[in-house]
Amino acid sequence: MRPTTKDLAKAAGVSLASVDRVLNDRGGVGKKTVAAVHEAIERIGFTRNVSAANLARGKTYEFRFLLPEDGGEFVGKLYDRIDEASQMFEEEGIKVSTAAIPALDAHRTAAMLAEIGAKADGIALMSPDSPQVRDAALRLQKDGKHILKLFSGKGVDEIAPVGIDNKAAGATAAQILGRFTPSGPGEVLVFADTMSAQDSIERRLGFDAFLAERFPNLTALPSLETYRQPARAVTIASNAARNHSNVVAAYVMSPEAAVTVNALKVAFDLNNLTVIAHERTDYTEAALRAGEIDALIAQNPGHVVRSAIRQMRARCENRGIVASQEAIRIEILLEANL
Amino acid sequence: MRPTTKDLAKAAGVSLASVDRVLNDRGGVGKKTVAAVHEAIERIGFTRNVSAANLARGKTYEFRFLLPEDGGEFVGKLYDRIDEASQMFEEEGIKVSTAAIPALDAHRTAAMLAEIGAKADGIALMSPDSPQVRDAALRLQKDGKHILKLFSGKGVDEIAPVGIDNKAAGATAAQILGRFTPSGPGEVLVFADTMSAQDSIERRLGFDAFLAERFPNLTALPSLETYRQPARAVTIASNAARNHSNVVAAYVMSPEAAVTVNALKVAFDLNNLTVIAHERTDYTEAALRAGEIDALIAQNPGHVVRSAIRQMRARCENRGIVASQEAIRIEILLEANL
DNA sequence: CGTTATTTGAGGTGCGTACCTCAAATCAAG
DNA sequence: CTTGATTTGAGGTACGCACCTCAAATAACG
């Protein structure tokens, strides 16, 4: 049998009340008693029965996912996964909900973050980096809230990220792209929604480094920014087709590939172009099946969601996590392993 | 607030005792009462508080993983993951342990399965298919035990599998192999420990079908069986090198690639050979880094272990699972996304 | 030394459920 | 209508822990 608090009390030679005070940090306990309890915890290997504790405490955690309001298909998938996870975590006293934030307006995003964060125990934030948002997040963190960044890389601040390592993802894209492209010299187009996003920067870094080292025959051209505007994307792609005679591949860095790939379809013959894109959506899946996209670099959104929830809970309960469970894998998707 | 059993009793217009009888299938309840309770469950959306139930019941589940005793590196990794999962599930009243079975001796394996299975609530079995083992498993299942097969595909019996779809894994191998290999005609070597294993058969099927359809320039040669014997593997590989002048790739189907890849190194120049193998181990990881292996088709063993445990629990508690969480992904590993 | 502040122990209640007992109510059959 | 069987209700105890109160023991201090 697992030792209970009673066993702990006996082992430490103190009363249940004192054990409780130590375990729950209630204060008013002498140093000697605290030490005795901790020693006994080690000695008999006591671990709190979290279910029982939560039951007794009647505590329910409130976690919120803040997602961009104009998110595309990928964010749509995220909502589905959050709903799903919401149900399974409800049994464990964890309420998960979502809120849409105006991603393009850093100021309002920061304001909403502060407001919503005050009411929740944990926040999982998907938003472009900006000083305002960063400050709001750090302030919440100081107030004992637990904040996670989704999909945006380690960055410089002290907000824990959940999602793939974007530099490694870029490198993976480079490796697949390099191997899928016939040897011989060629140029590679690189597309992003905007290069002011941290994730695009990191992907580009990883992509360039790996391509330069392993595939010196391929030249990565400067990043092209679509701003998610279809017309602009077509113009850019057409210009690229005109100005570069030896384009053999394209890397679409943004999580919403549709606009860019559709533009590529107009300007190029995709049969002769290796196209690597990110994330699994209905669009990219269909494009992969149709041979328009050659490979997807993806991360499992369900895993990201569940991992974020587990990590927020672990932080709330001051516990550790199982690192290997929380590592988000960089998946390579082909038609055969969709 | 989530409705409790008290709320349920009130809503159904019956007593707590009756609610309890219905919920726990204790019998001695009139049809009308049962119907009223079920109706009320639907109406107010009652769901059992599993933590409280387990606490009250004081029940701890015993789950066992049966793994081949002479397993190689891959099985070693599995043990690590089981240890890890064992700790995290212990908090939830689930005891997870392992036992080694003599995989090559179907008779003894079946006997051990019957003996160990009788003492556990759930069994996760990794073993080659054999009528004896299959019968023992089905018998246990009839006795209310919950059995899962690890890594061995759907098969024909009614034992639920946990692990990747081996046919799709074979197809994925074919797709990667085909794209990594320079166009033009060529021959492909296919290795297995033994083709009497169900997983190898399925992988081969998926591989052949995909290769024939998409890469008609490549010819997959008959499967070569190493029986995990290094000397035999070298002989086989050397013979293949002698008899086939245009070998451009090799597919190593077994989860322990070391023996085969080492043999290939002797007989071929791996720089001119695309090698696809399975599963991430220290060996395959190093070989991938060294460029000896070009890609790995893998599954996350930690995920498999945790999924098996969750599924056994769900079966014990007669609950559903979150399908998207339990699907084991076919991972493609390159150096960049290790 | 007495006085006050601090620390400790004993005990109780409740979280939502399981599981048990016993008596009362209801039903079916003769 | 009686008898016996079946169904129902009321109530209790327990699981492991959180959180509260009150009194007793101990320490710190002038």
Automatic annotation (TrEMBL), chains A, B:
It comes from the Bacteria. GO terms for molecular function: DNA-binding transcription factor activity; transcription cis-regulatory region binding. PROSITE patterns: HTH_LACI_2. Residues 3-57 form the HTH lacI-type domain. Keywords: DNA-binding, Transcription, Transcription regulation. The keyword Transcription regulation applies. It holds the Pfam family LacI. InterPro entries: HTH_LacI, Lambda_DNA-bd_dom_sf, Peripla_BP_I, SBP_2_dom. SUPFAM superfamilies: lambda repressor-like DNA-binding domains, Periplasmic binding protein-like I. This is HTH-type transcriptional regulator DegA. The gene is degA_2.
